[in-house]
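Q: Got a minute? One more chain.
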Amino acid sequence: MIFLLRLLAGYCEAKGWGKVLTGPAVLRVLPDVVREPDLFVVPPEEISEARGAPLRVRPALVVEVTSPATRSMDLREKAAEYQEAGIPECWVIDPERQEVVIQRLEGSAVVVERLQGGRLLSRASGWGWVGSSRSRCHLRRRAWNRSFQGREREKAGKVPE
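A: Always. Here it is, folded:
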């Protein structure tokens, strides 16, 4: 989860697009429903409203990481609430099944896609990820860490190696 948080936050910072939040941020999804998504991306136009508790913003993307105990609630109950609230995209990451279930609002329809590899793209934020095997993730994580560390050195006034 921390890896995905850093990737999304790095993308948002680099593109000047939105803000990534995580628990314990509480989100008012519907008038009578409050949720604490594992991670969510607030679009730029909503950032000024992202204060207080619970937050009254509509994220562009919500990410839930499921477990055997929460799988049904994450895939059905929470996803339905996010759709009803007009949140354009919800990803449910299922580590046990090694898949990501993507639920997107397209007009009045909900499109569901299950990925066990390949390309993961957020249409709501424009962020994307290619590959999901452990070796690919490891290589991309190392490349991203080198890039992030270089930016941090530049901010500190040090010349990148």
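A: The beta strands are 19-22, 27-30, 33-35, 39-42, 61-65, 89-94, 99-106, 109-115, 119-121, 128-130.
Q: Perfect, thanks.
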